[in-house]
Amino acid sequence: MCSMTNHDTPIIDHNSLLDEIKKNNVRIIDVRRKEEYEDGHITNSVNLPLAKLLNDDSPENIAKIAGELGISDNTSVVVYDDTFGALSSRIVWALQYIGHTDVRLLDVTFSQWKQLGLETTTKIPDIAKTIHSINIKPEIMATVDYLEKIKDKKNVVVIDNRERLNFLEQHIPGAINIPYRTLSTEGRIIRNKESMRNLLKNRGIPEDAEIITYCGSVGTLSGLAYYALKSIGLPNVKLYVHSFKEWKKLEKPIDKQENASYWDLSAD
Amino acid sequence: MAQQLRPSKRGSKKPNIDWSRREEADNFANTVKLFRQGKIDQNTFRRFRLQHGAYGTRMTDDYAMVRIKIPAGQIYPHQLEKIAHLSEMYSIGGAHFSTRENIQLHWVVLEDVSEIMYALADVGLTSREACGNTVRNVMCSPLSGVCDKEAFDATPYALAVAKFLLRNPLNQALPRKFKFNFTCCEKHGMIRIVDVGLLPQLREISGEKQKGFKIFLGGGLGNRSFVGHQLEEFTSEEDLLYTSIAVLRIFDRMGDRKNMARNRMRYLVNDMGWEKFQNLVLKERALVRSTQSVIVKLKINDSDNEIKSSISVSNESSSVPDGFARWKNTNVVRQKQKGYNSVSIALESGDISATQLRSIAQLISDFSGECFGRNGFSQNIVLRYIHDDDLTNLYSQLIESGLAKTGSLTMASAVGCTGTTSCNLALTNSHRLSKEIQRKFLELNLDEDDDLRDSTIKISGCPNSCGQHEIATIGFYGGGARLGKDMFPNYTMSLGGRFDESSMLGHHTARIPVKRVIPVILKIIELFKKYKKPDDTLSKWIDRIVHGNESSEINSVEGIKKAISNLLIVPTKQEDSDFYNDYGSDTSYHTITGKGECAA
Predict the structure, then answer these.
(1) Strand B507-513 and strand B486-495: pairing?
(2) pLDDT averaged over chain B?
(3) Which residues, in sequence order, are bridge partners of residue A159?
(4) Which of A79, A210, B458, B511 could staple A29 via S-S, CB 3.0–4.6 A?
(5) Between chains, do B96 and A265 touch, taking CB under 8 Å as contact?
(6) Window 92-121 of B, Cβ < 8 Å to A
(7) Given an 8 Å threshold on Cβ–Cβ distance, is A164 in contact with B353?
(8) How close is the nearest chain A Cα to the Cα of B219, in Å?
(9) Would you state the CATH architecture of domain A11-136?
């Protein structure tokens, strides 16, 4: 499990994961509820419900959780969920934030994995606890102060990944909206590279821009967007991890699409 | 599950017409860029955008509404699934069924429109010529092919006309939009309120049956509405194409290109006088007939509606779920094909979630003998060739998907245009009002009242007629009114509109403050119940009133006006502040409109 790889595009396709499972070369994290995990999971995976991380997402706690799951600094890690990749993205990001380099997102959800007819098990692997160090990567995180300072500068793009109606109702001034669903494709949590590039090109987002993603509360949907952008190798992306919930709580300015009753178009 | 019991998999049937052209998506993306860079002026861009089916959105240039054309309303499961996916990716997580058999995606970022166009090409759909001064979606009654009153199925003709005219240079820059409606019978179509309305009919010539149409020209709803005129006794199927070309050529040549407020063909017909216009069409047609190449023909494909299997898919007798009888009574029509039914799904103002779109796709695959759905013209979708034995099973599954609302074929399913939810011209939230009316009707079980069954409620958010209010039994269009300096939304109510063989436009009766619209409707129903004759229906009663033929106490629209007058008293804002708010809004009402695009 000692590869110490730094993945520029931290996404692994399911066929490669099968190989790595065979080689027993990887620690897989299943980000679903405990009961779902116990019902069946990808071979060799360990369970980490997102709530456990969100209870305390300080670097110290992230490192502690990693250690408990048998992840040391050099362990090769792959993460999956069944929530279109948003929860697993948040875990991948947390590990990268404390300095873990060899961590990747599985390109399919657990449901898609099963639809592909790939193997699952109910066997729970033994975990040898270990220690993970902390080596913060501040360049992948945006704090509210940082965001406020930089958001109106040239070549900075703030992307809101919530659904369209939520965005219309309220958003950070100057943000553009790319709903998280836009990032996926049928059968994969993230679009292929060509269509991802095309999306950015249509929207006029330069690939060398500094991009900050945010969503509703804890950086899951925007975590997925973070990795969708990373999947095509964009150099300068940050996650505003505390997202719109914090922004609102701090009573920062908010923009709204005025004079239209768009919510009444919703059938939900 | 039903699909496991299915004798043969029918859900994989694919459409045989591809309406798309993928390169139009790239062209659209590039043109948006040029527009954003200021290299194309606003007007040129707007014309281009509308030609490609992207309509403007309320108070913003950042978003568009993409109108996906569904010719003859015929839509396949994989197309519904694609639209579901696109609605989640680029729109509001749901779509909207329009009154003209289109499916619309609202609040789409202008820069994403090309992605939608590209993806629609995967399933053979297009938004091309869904807006702008073009031939809009060619409609056909959702019951064409199954209606027991039709002479023959008009669907293949509607599809052939749509195919012939799409991207045809003949109609790329008409003076104004242009609409074709085909129907099965007088009752189930709207043939007298469009530019060209077509009713199939048969005639016998020396013992042989000949197919043809009654063609109605120059009808239309709008700021001024007209009922169409019948061109001639019988138009043969060979003449269908020539007549269509002739009418389009005359409109293209003679239509008013200056006065945008009155340049639909109905104004031309009205200004010229029907007889003159009629002669012109007949002469032009003779010219077209003699000059068109013989290879210019409509490609009529009759094979679409072959039903391969007549076996039901449910071979176990499932228990009858609660509410089934009410649902069947108000949503299901028996087909002329023995043992089969058409099921209309009631939506609220045509809105549907992505999940529900997927459910409908699945239900079509599982239950429909023809394996496609048919969009209707009251913001609904119809599933046809449902076997008698499958109705309870289908109903159970509709309940699970939240699609089992009753009253789809009754007055309860009010129609409301998009109103202030997305339209630049809207003055009121007609969309929400129609949902509120539907909810109230279902709450009061009024969908089960057979006396109300053939009546309709239709609402537009401004004096234009996207909500088709003039042909409703009770119609409304939105505006604003004030008491002192305080504004409130106010609807003009018309009574007695109809779109059958006695088509007529409703009589303006009174102005009704928005929060009194539902009480007024209920009051009218109460009056009807009080004064009705045995075997009367609401629409017959209103018909007699507007024509001065009613003998009871309420015998004129003035009488109705008087009877509802106490509901029209306007309270001060202090007395009732909610009175001043539109539905869906908790802030003071004010009218704001942008530039309309119907005429652009």
Answers:
(1) antiparallel
(2) 92
(3) A176, A213
(4) A79
(5) yes
(6) 92-94, 96, 106-107, 109, 111-112, 114-115
(7) no
(8) 30
(9) 3-Layer(aba) Sandwich (3.40)
What value, to the nearest 5°, has the Cα angle with vertex B500 and ends B378 and B547?
115
Among A199, A261, A263, A268, most B C-beta atoms within 10 A, so best to mutate, is A261
Token pair in block for residue B359:
């459910």
Chain region(s) in chain A for CATH 3.40.250.10: 11-136, 139-262
C-beta atoms of A261 and B356 within 8 A: no
The pLDDT value given to residue B304: 53
pLDDT value for B2: 38
CB contacts of B420 in chain A (<8 Å) are 259-261
Q: What is the mean pLDDT of residues B124-138?
A: 97
* Predicted pLDDT at B599: 39
By CA distance, what is B587's nearest residue in A? A259
Give the number of C-alpha atoms closer than 13 A to the C-alpha of residue B21, restricted to the C-beta side: 10
Residue A133 backbone dihedrals phi, psi, to 5 degrees: -85, 175
String of DSSP letters for B323-347: THHHHHHHHEEE-SSTTEEEEEEP-
Q: If one looks up domain A139-262 in CATH, what number appears?
A: 3.40.250.10
Look up tokens 């002469």; give the residue.
B283
Burial B292-317 (b: 16+ CB within 10 A, else e): eeeeeebeeeeebbeeeeeebbbeee
Cβ-defined contact of B421 to A203 (cutoff 8 Å): no
Distance CA B498, CA B496 (A): 6
Q: What is the structure's pLDDT at B315?
A: 59
Contacts for B299-304 with beta carbons within 8 Å, 24 or more apart? B299/B160, B299/B163, B299/B164, B300/B156, B300/B157, B300/B160, B300/B237, B301/B16, B301/B156, B301/B159, B301/B160, B302/B153, B302/B156, B303/B16, B304/B16, B304/B74, B304/B155, B304/B156, B304/B159, B304/B370
Of A198, A199, A266, the CB nearest to B92: A266
Taking the C-alpha atoms of residue A167 and residue A176, their distance in angstroms, rounded to an integer, is 9
Residues 531-590 of B with CB under 8 A from A: 582-585
Give the least confident one: A73-82, B7-16, B60-69: B7-16
Euclidean distance between CA atoms B200 and B214, whole angstroms: 6
Report yes or no: B223 and B464 within 8 Å, Cβ to Cβ. Answer: yes
pTM as predicted:
0.94
Residues B146-164: what's their mean pLDDT? Answer: 97
ipTM above 0.90, yes or no: yes
Q: What is the pLDDT of residue B195?
A: 96
Shortest alpha-carbon distance between residue B120 and chain A (Å): 14
Does the structure show a pLDDT above 90 at A221? yes
Size of interface A-B (CB pairs under 8 A): 100
Is A203 within 8 Å of B107 when comparing Cβ atoms?
no
Closest-CA distance, A204 to chain B, in angstroms, reads: 8
Mean pLDDT of B146-168: 97
Kindly identify which residue of chain B lies nearest to residue A163, measuring between CA atoms. Answer: B92
Residue A1 has pLDDT above 50, yes or no: no
Average pLDDT value over all residues in chain A: 95
Does residue B27 carry a pLDDT above 60? yes
pLDDT band for position B81 (50/70/90)? very high
